[in-house]
Amino acid sequence: MNRSAAFWRMAISVVLVAASSPTSAGGMRGDDGRAIRGITIGPIENAYHPSVGYGSDAFSRTLEESHAMGATWISLTPFGRVFDLNGTGVDPTFEAPFETNRANVLRAVHMAHAKGLRVMLVPHLWTESQEWRALIDPKTEAGWDRWIRSYSDYVLEWAKVAERASVDLLACGVELRTWVTGTHAVAFAELIRRVRRIYHGAVTYSANWDDAETTVILSELDVIGINAFYPLADKDGASFETLLAGGKRVAERVRVLSAMWNKPVLFTEIGYTARANTAITPWDWPEKSTNVVANAQAQAQAYRALISPLLEEPWFAGFFVWRTYSDPDDVSQEPEWGYSPRGRSAELVMRDAFSSRWQSDAIWQPGWVPRARVPGLYSGLSR
Question: Can you tell me the distance from the alpha carbon of 101 to that of 111, in angstroms, rounded to the nearest whole number?
Answer without folding.
Answer: 15
